[in-house]
Amino acid sequence: MTAERGERIDVAPILQSALDGDTEAIARAAKERDLDPDAFARLLELALQPILWEAAKQCAALTDVDKWDRGYCPICGAWPALAELVGAEKRRVLRCGRCGVSWSWLVLLCPYCGNDDHRTLGTLVSTEERPGPASPARAEPPSKDRVDVCERCHGYVKAIATFTSVPAVRLAAEDAATVHLDIGARAAGYTRPGTVDISTAGIPRLVREGRGAPDD
Fold first, then answer.
1. What is the pLDDT of residues 138-148, one digit of tens each?
2. Alpha-carbon distance 21 to 23, whole Å?
3. Which among 9, 123, 138, 194 is least buried, having the fewest CB atoms inside 10 angstroms?
4. Please, what CATH class does the domain formed by 65-208 belong to?
5. Mean pLDDT along residues 52-60
6. To which H or E segment does residue 72 belong?
Protein backbone atom coordinates (compact mmCIF):
# COMPACT_ATOMS: atom_id res chain seq x y z
CA MET A 1 0.00 0.00 0.00
CA THR A 2 1.31 3.48 -0.87
CA ALA A 3 0.46 6.57 1.14
CA GLU A 4 -0.45 9.87 -0.51
CA ARG A 5 3.01 11.22 0.26
CA GLY A 6 4.60 8.37 -1.72
CA GLU A 7 5.76 6.24 1.20
CA ARG A 8 5.07 2.50 0.96
CA ILE A 9 3.19 1.08 3.94
CA ASP A 10 3.39 -2.56 4.97
CA VAL A 11 -0.15 -3.45 6.07
CA ALA A 12 0.40 -7.22 6.39
CA PRO A 13 1.00 -7.10 10.18
CA ILE A 14 -2.30 -5.31 10.80
CA LEU A 15 -4.55 -7.27 8.41
CA GLN A 16 -5.48 -9.80 11.09
CA SER A 17 -6.62 -6.97 13.35
CA ALA A 18 -8.69 -5.58 10.47
CA LEU A 19 -10.24 -9.00 9.89
CA ASP A 20 -11.07 -9.29 13.60
CA GLY A 21 -12.51 -5.76 13.71
CA ASP A 22 -9.96 -4.67 16.32
CA THR A 23 -10.48 -0.92 16.02
CA GLU A 24 -8.08 -0.09 18.84
CA ALA A 25 -5.20 -1.96 17.17
CA ILE A 26 -6.00 -0.27 13.85
CA ALA A 27 -6.06 3.16 15.50
CA ARG A 28 -2.68 2.49 17.14
CA ALA A 29 -1.19 1.34 13.83
CA ALA A 30 -2.54 4.44 12.07
CA LYS A 31 -1.04 6.70 14.76
CA GLU A 32 2.35 4.97 14.44
CA ARG A 33 2.25 5.62 10.68
CA ASP A 34 0.93 9.19 11.05
CA LEU A 35 -2.25 8.33 9.14
CA ASP A 36 -5.91 9.19 9.60
CA PRO A 37 -7.43 6.25 11.58
CA ASP A 38 -10.76 6.20 9.71
CA ALA A 39 -9.14 6.40 6.28
CA PHE A 40 -6.58 3.74 7.26
CA ALA A 41 -9.33 1.40 8.51
CA ARG A 42 -11.23 1.81 5.25
CA LEU A 43 -8.12 1.07 3.18
CA LEU A 44 -7.51 -2.08 5.20
CA GLU A 45 -11.08 -3.21 4.54
CA LEU A 46 -10.55 -2.67 0.81
CA ALA A 47 -7.30 -4.63 0.95
CA LEU A 48 -9.09 -7.54 2.62
CA GLN A 49 -12.06 -7.73 0.27
CA PRO A 50 -10.53 -9.79 -2.59
CA ILE A 51 -9.37 -12.37 -0.04
CA LEU A 52 -12.79 -12.47 1.60
CA TRP A 53 -14.57 -12.74 -1.76
CA GLU A 54 -12.49 -15.82 -2.55
CA ALA A 55 -13.13 -17.27 0.92
CA ALA A 56 -16.87 -16.78 0.44
CA LYS A 57 -16.71 -18.46 -2.97
CA GLN A 58 -14.89 -21.49 -1.56
CA CYS A 59 -17.23 -21.81 1.42
CA ALA A 60 -20.26 -21.64 -0.85
CA ALA A 61 -18.83 -24.58 -2.81
CA LEU A 62 -18.44 -26.65 0.37
CA THR A 63 -21.68 -25.94 2.23
CA ASP A 64 -25.12 -24.37 1.83
CA VAL A 65 -24.39 -20.93 3.25
CA ASP A 66 -27.97 -19.87 2.48
CA LYS A 67 -29.18 -21.94 5.47
CA TRP A 68 -26.98 -20.07 7.98
CA ASP A 69 -29.15 -19.29 11.04
CA ARG A 70 -27.28 -16.36 12.56
CA GLY A 71 -27.68 -12.65 11.89
CA TYR A 72 -23.94 -12.10 11.38
CA CYS A 73 -21.93 -13.25 8.36
CA PRO A 74 -20.87 -16.94 8.39
CA ILE A 75 -17.61 -16.14 6.60
CA CYS A 76 -16.14 -13.05 8.26
CA GLY A 77 -18.49 -12.37 11.19
CA ALA A 78 -19.58 -8.90 10.02
CA TRP A 79 -23.13 -7.60 10.38
CA PRO A 80 -25.11 -7.41 7.12
CA ALA A 81 -24.65 -4.20 5.15
CA LEU A 82 -28.16 -4.51 3.78
CA ALA A 83 -30.92 -6.95 2.89
CA GLU A 84 -32.22 -7.77 -0.56
CA LEU A 85 -35.87 -8.43 -1.35
CA VAL A 86 -35.34 -10.84 -4.23
CA GLY A 87 -37.76 -11.62 -7.03
CA ALA A 88 -41.51 -11.24 -7.21
CA GLU A 89 -41.95 -13.03 -3.88
CA LYS A 90 -39.59 -10.53 -2.18
CA ARG A 91 -37.54 -13.23 -0.43
CA ARG A 92 -35.41 -11.50 2.22
CA VAL A 93 -31.69 -12.17 1.85
CA LEU A 94 -29.01 -10.66 4.08
CA ARG A 95 -25.81 -9.50 2.37
CA CYS A 96 -22.40 -9.04 3.95
CA GLY A 97 -20.68 -5.91 2.73
CA ARG A 98 -17.21 -7.28 3.47
CA CYS A 99 -17.17 -10.66 1.70
CA GLY A 100 -20.38 -10.43 -0.32
CA VAL A 101 -21.93 -13.66 0.98
CA SER A 102 -25.70 -13.96 1.18
CA TRP A 103 -28.09 -15.98 3.33
CA SER A 104 -31.87 -16.17 3.62
CA TRP A 105 -33.55 -14.51 6.58
CA LEU A 106 -37.12 -14.27 7.78
CA VAL A 107 -38.86 -10.94 7.30
CA LEU A 108 -40.16 -10.88 10.88
CA LEU A 109 -36.82 -11.58 12.57
CA CYS A 110 -34.24 -9.07 13.78
CA PRO A 111 -30.73 -10.23 12.79
CA TYR A 112 -29.18 -8.40 15.75
CA CYS A 113 -31.17 -9.38 18.85
CA GLY A 114 -33.19 -12.28 17.45
CA ASN A 115 -36.52 -10.60 18.16
CA ASP A 116 -39.38 -12.33 16.30
CA ASP A 117 -42.33 -10.50 17.87
CA HIS A 118 -44.22 -8.82 15.01
CA ARG A 119 -45.55 -6.21 17.44
CA THR A 120 -42.05 -4.78 17.94
CA LEU A 121 -40.83 -5.10 14.34
CA GLY A 122 -41.62 -2.43 11.78
CA THR A 123 -40.74 -0.78 8.50
CA LEU A 124 -39.75 2.72 7.45
CA VAL A 125 -40.43 3.60 3.81
CA SER A 126 -38.41 6.25 2.02
CA THR A 127 -40.11 8.75 -0.27
CA GLU A 128 -36.82 10.32 -1.36
CA GLU A 129 -35.92 10.00 -5.03
CA ARG A 130 -32.41 9.04 -6.11
CA PRO A 131 -30.76 8.82 -9.56
CA GLY A 132 -31.16 5.05 -9.88
CA PRO A 133 -29.84 1.69 -8.69
CA ALA A 134 -26.10 1.03 -8.56
CA SER A 135 -26.58 -2.43 -10.06
CA PRO A 136 -28.24 -3.40 -13.40
CA ALA A 137 -30.08 -6.12 -11.48
CA ARG A 138 -31.95 -3.41 -9.58
CA ALA A 139 -34.90 -2.83 -11.87
CA GLU A 140 -37.33 -1.89 -9.09
CA PRO A 141 -38.14 1.82 -8.50
CA PRO A 142 -36.55 3.49 -5.45
CA SER A 143 -39.94 3.67 -3.70
CA LYS A 144 -39.75 -0.10 -3.18
CA ASP A 145 -36.71 0.30 -0.92
CA ARG A 146 -37.32 0.34 2.83
CA VAL A 147 -35.75 0.06 6.27
CA ASP A 148 -36.66 -2.82 8.59
CA VAL A 149 -36.47 -1.75 12.25
CA CYS A 150 -36.61 -3.45 15.64
CA GLU A 151 -38.13 -1.65 18.61
CA ARG A 152 -36.45 -4.02 21.07
CA CYS A 153 -32.79 -3.30 20.22
CA HIS A 154 -33.44 -0.22 18.04
CA GLY A 155 -31.43 -1.76 15.21
CA TYR A 156 -32.17 -1.35 11.52
CA VAL A 157 -31.43 -3.09 8.24
CA LYS A 158 -32.09 -1.31 4.99
CA ALA A 159 -33.73 -3.47 2.32
CA ILE A 160 -33.53 -3.05 -1.45
CA ALA A 161 -35.81 -4.63 -4.04
CA THR A 162 -34.03 -6.54 -6.80
CA PHE A 163 -34.79 -9.29 -9.32
CA THR A 164 -31.40 -10.98 -8.83
CA SER A 165 -28.80 -10.63 -6.09
CA VAL A 166 -26.32 -7.79 -6.52
CA PRO A 167 -22.77 -9.04 -7.35
CA ALA A 168 -20.31 -8.80 -4.46
CA VAL A 169 -18.16 -6.22 -6.26
CA ARG A 170 -21.18 -3.89 -6.56
CA LEU A 171 -22.35 -4.12 -2.97
CA ALA A 172 -20.26 -1.17 -1.78
CA ALA A 173 -21.75 0.99 -4.54
CA GLU A 174 -25.28 -0.14 -3.64
CA ASP A 175 -24.61 0.57 0.03
CA ALA A 176 -23.46 4.08 -0.85
CA ALA A 177 -26.36 4.65 -3.26
CA THR A 178 -28.85 3.92 -0.47
CA VAL A 179 -27.22 6.15 2.15
CA HIS A 180 -30.45 8.18 2.33
CA LEU A 181 -32.01 5.14 4.01
CA ASP A 182 -29.25 5.15 6.64
CA ILE A 183 -29.75 8.86 7.25
CA GLY A 184 -33.49 8.43 7.68
CA ALA A 185 -33.13 5.45 10.03
CA ARG A 186 -30.57 7.18 12.24
CA ALA A 187 -32.66 10.34 12.35
CA ALA A 188 -35.52 8.18 13.64
CA GLY A 189 -33.30 6.84 16.43
CA TYR A 190 -32.16 3.49 15.02
CA THR A 191 -28.59 2.18 14.68
CA ARG A 192 -26.75 -0.61 12.84
CA PRO A 193 -26.44 -2.90 14.73
CA GLY A 194 -28.78 -2.19 17.58
CA THR A 195 -28.03 -2.38 21.30
CA VAL A 196 -27.57 -6.11 21.84
CA ASP A 197 -26.27 -8.55 24.45
CA ILE A 198 -22.89 -9.67 23.13
CA SER A 199 -23.46 -13.22 24.42
CA THR A 200 -26.60 -13.70 22.30
CA ALA A 201 -26.08 -11.16 19.51
CA GLY A 202 -27.16 -12.44 16.12
CA ILE A 203 -28.82 -15.59 17.49
CA PRO A 204 -32.59 -15.97 16.87
CA ARG A 205 -34.74 -16.61 19.92
CA LEU A 206 -35.80 -20.11 18.82
CA VAL A 207 -32.17 -21.10 18.24
CA ARG A 208 -31.27 -19.89 21.73
CA GLU A 209 -34.06 -22.06 23.07
CA GLY A 210 -32.73 -25.07 21.17
CA ARG A 211 -35.72 -25.35 18.86
CA GLY A 212 -34.09 -24.13 15.65
CA ALA A 213 -35.21 -21.27 13.42
CA PRO A 214 -38.65 -21.58 11.81
CA ASP A 215 -38.84 -22.35 8.11
CA ASP A 216 -39.22 -19.35 5.83
1. 554 445 789 99
2. 6
3. 123
4. alpha beta
5. 88
6. none
